Write the structure tokens for this entry.
Amino acid sequence: MVAEVERSVVVPSAIPVVVGSKAMAGALVRMSADSNRPCKFHGPSSPVSFTNWGDWDNGHTDG
Amino acid sequence: MNTESLYLTPIVKVVGDYCNNRCGYCFYHSLDQTLHRRMSFKVLESFIRQHVELVHGNLSFIWHGGEPLLAGLDFFWEIIRLQKLFVPQDRSIRNSVQTNGTLITNEWAKFFKENNFGVGVSLDGDAESHDRFRITHAGHGTFNNTVRGIKILQKHGIKLSVIQTITQANACRAEKDFGFFTGGIGLSSFGINPYLDLSESNEHMKGQSLSNDVLTQTLVRYIDLWLERDDKALRIREIDSHLSGLYKKRARNCSFNGSCHAFYTVNYDGCVYPCDRLSGNDEFCFGTLVEQTLREILRTKKWQDFICRTRKLPGDCMLCKWKDSCNNGCTAHRVGGIDGKYYFCQSRQDVFAYLHTKSKQCTMQVL
């Protein structure tokens, strides 16, 4: 009986799709597991960190 | 030396300020960028040997300029030779190069592929956005040559990232530039640098610095475009970094992490500075590898004082709900000096708030 109730409620096609969910999910997957407290940030400590190569905040704009 | 400073990423200006372009907003615009300089192999060897000895674990090098490809392929092969000579096999090496892309050839692409280089290319958007300020010494646009370089890299299977500079001129062109990046040349990763000339010393760029409001509007537009495209593989550095901040995680963009201590710059002549946004300023020259060891330079009171100043947060930061997500932004964009308040503080707060709402809407489905 419980299972029948649950089936009647959870109908995937009835859930409105929020545009951007996939993009957001991708960002969450890419997110570092490390805290952003500066004292915890030491630089690349594992090969995984090397995926960060394009992320150094640079570009020849004036400062 | 404390343990923190044992993890460092060097930014190496292999040709100093020398560049084949003359971009209007370059922070070396007031310098003579036509002087052909190159780091000597002696300084290069000394730097790589000392860096490898000083830091722990895996290694990351950022090769920069000016335009670093002007150093020539022989210089880059020497880098590889020296790294093989000094780095034990149990330590990984990651090399990155930031280039304007105009000098890329098949030979360069093969080198980058063979040696696993990450390549960042400076590209401001489509031709109209890019050619406004990214020009040659003769004043011609560089868009065609830059895109030609990008296509060569793509042909060789090199995954590249682009850094776009936003000025007042292209802030209103987000749709077109986003469409060009994602559709026109098929990028899956790019970052956005807001143009800011706090000293207002660049006559060519008067009125082009972004205000907080314009930066917020631009980033919000990019967020909306990113959500509408809804591609999990599409990474926009600023969006990822703001989201990391929301979740109190380390951002991939240093300007969110308060991590100036994790970088130092070596100029072609061996002089050591902090991040290259502050290089070339005698106030921030910590020493030279010609006369001192790297260890001595990074132990100087000048370096330690610099780090302390960059970490000290203004009083109102302490009351801000985004303090740990922002860390007072980029040191080079602080008003009144490196211990001042981040110029784009208001924009950061606004974008955090906007993304917070969007993230809640989306993650209800994701989680």
About this structure: The first helix of chain B runs from residue 41 to 54. Chain B touches chain A through 94 residues (CB under 8 Å).
